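Narrative summary of target 7.
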Amino acid sequence: MSEKNNALFNLQELFVEPTAHCNEACTMCNRWKWPKQFLDLDNLVARLEEAEKMGAKRVRFSGGEPLLHPHFQKLMDYFKSHKMHCLVYTNGLLLPNYAEELASVNAAVSVSIDGLTAETHDHIRGINGAYDNTHKGIEAFLNARKKYNGNSHISANFTVQEQNIKDLLNYRNAIDSIGVDQIRFAIIHRPGAINFNSAMYGVLRSFLEWAEKDPPKTRLLIHPQLYAIANGHISKESLAEGLPSYALFAREPLPCYVSHFSMMVAPTGDVYPCIHSFRDNEKQSADRARRIGNVCEQSLQEIWNNQPYNSFRSNTIPVRISDAKELCGICEYYFKLKEIHQKILCKENLEPCLNLNT
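Modeled conformation, tokenized:
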């Protein structure tokens, strides 16, 4: 273990998966097949305290379904007496049960809505009643937000895929009625999940044109990949491989700095340099060869300073991302790298690049 680290910044955000288990069976994901593992509450709270001392301003809870953690309510109690902000990614099924706790700590919530109708959403999510329960959860959170006079942010995620792309045009008349502050549209990242034909391209172009010329009151966050697809900058072959980010930026690569301001804790306690070094393995357990430590064996500070993490950082700064196709091909930060890179060179604040609500 080294006593110092080679990170350019202090830890700024922590990604945590309290569990890999999920209560839905989505067509584009296999997390529902994973074993029911949960991070120990005491260990998790200790790591949150440590992350905050290290300078972290935010923690992002995802999964799996984070609300399935048996002590999620107690976990939220931590934020009642601490300044660190939390963002929770959820499918929304259990949101009616936890809306009060989340709103009371001013948490940001991101809910998945993959269809405009119950038929489409429930089919993609693999469970009957998912659409109705998710919308009840949104309503419960909005009511709780009013109760606490807070400004808790709630957004929805719509993952464009072959089964729901037809809903995009109908969304134009329904977006504002959903009630969320923002809707994010992104493309699915899984080999074979989408096979674009000419009709789909037409729907996507019409939707993007509407979003530009006649946007709704609800803020739209449209992933640049969708514009790139509509404009023909990403091939059908790259979409079929599930690597649209890699295909778009292989021509203009940039170094990656994510490991210099964040780290990710998996349900096993294993720590990874970034969320994609854990997530892009589709097996029932992540590739442990990529891990840099375990919070059951070491503190976050020790892991942040250790030789495996320092080595990873050293390798990712000079190595162009496009050379790491398997690891980085679906990375969300791909579309922020230019901005991050420029701010690092100019020694500016990274906060705008790390928007809590995205």
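The radius of gyration is 20 Å.
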